[in-house]
Amino acid sequence: MIRAYVALGANLGHPAATVRAALAELAGIPESALDAASSLYRTAPLGLKHQPDFINAVAAVDTALAPLALLEALFAIEARFGRSRSVPNAPRTLDLDLLLYGDTRLNEAQLTLPHPRMHQRAFVLAPLAEIAPECRIPGRGTVLELLAGCRDQGIVRIESIES
């Protein structure tokens, strides 16, 4: 089994409920087990500013699936939640990003690992630091070091996943 980290985000409909439901869906991915989930965080949108705030979380998944097979499983979950892909940074019902897959480095058309912008995003780093504070992002540094560089980004922990 490989430890993978998945970012979850939503800002349409009932985003907190959507993220909690998506975490339950992650637990049902074949040959995989949901090991940990962060609290939920509220963050301002990046890029297209005139849209609702996002609700974000990060999950740790132990999986026997290959990276692209895991990505396909994540896309299937997004589709079940009505995800449509229009323009980058657009509002969405659910966004699932494969952040890390062990210490794998991959640069293919469908998938780049580690996620190419995760080291610059507090909405990824803060929830990841909550569940894996010692985590290292290959080629970038530790989650806590990188999070310190994102202090200017607004992020608020809104609830524990157990709430």
Give the SSE layout.
Blueprint (H helix, E strand, L loop, with lengths): L1 E9 L4 H12 L5 E6 L2 E4 L10 E10 L3 H14 L14 E7 L4 E2 L4 E2 L8 H10 L4 E2 L3 E2 H6 L6 E5 L4
Antiparallel strand pairs: 1-4, 1-5, 2-4, 3-4, 3-10, 6-7, 8-9
What can you tell me about this protein's structure?
It is a single chain. With 163 residues, this protein is of the alpha+beta class. The chain has a single domain (2-159), classed as 2-Layer Sandwich (Alpha-Beta Plaits), CATH 3.30.70. The chain contains 4 helices and 10 strands. The protein has helices at 15-26, 67-80, 122-131, 143-148; strands at 2-10, 32-37, 40-43, 54-63, 95-101, 106-107, 112-113, 136-137, 141-142, 155-159. The strands form 3 sheets. Strands 1, 2, 3, 4, 5 and 10 form a 6-stranded antiparallel beta sheet that branches. A two-stranded antiparallel sheet has the order 6-7. A two-stranded antiparallel ribbon has the order 8-9. A hairpin with a 4-residue loop joins strand 6 (106-107) and strand 7 (112-113). The N and C termini lie far apart (29 Å). The mean pLDDT is 91.
Task: Compose a concise summary of this entry.
This protein is α+β, with helices and mostly antiparallel strands.
CATH topology: Alpha-Beta Plaits
Number of domains: 1
CATH architecture: 2-Layer Sandwich
Strand fraction equals 25-35%
Top-tier CATH class: Alpha Beta
Strand segment tally: 10
Low-confidence stretches: none
Instruction: Please state the CA-atom Rg, rounded to the nearest Å.
Output: 14 Å
Order of H and E elements:
EHEEEHEEEHEEHE
The whole-number mean of residue pLDDT values reads: 91
CATH superfamily: 7,8-Dihydro-6-hydroxymethylpterin-pyrophosphokinase HPPK
What spatial form do the alpha-carbon principal axes imply?
Answer: globular
Largest sheet: 6 strands, antiparallel
End-to-end gap: 29 Å
**From the structure provided, what is the oligomeric state, counting identical versus distinct chains?**
single chain
| Continuous helix count | 4
Class based on secondary structure composition and strand pairing: alpha+beta
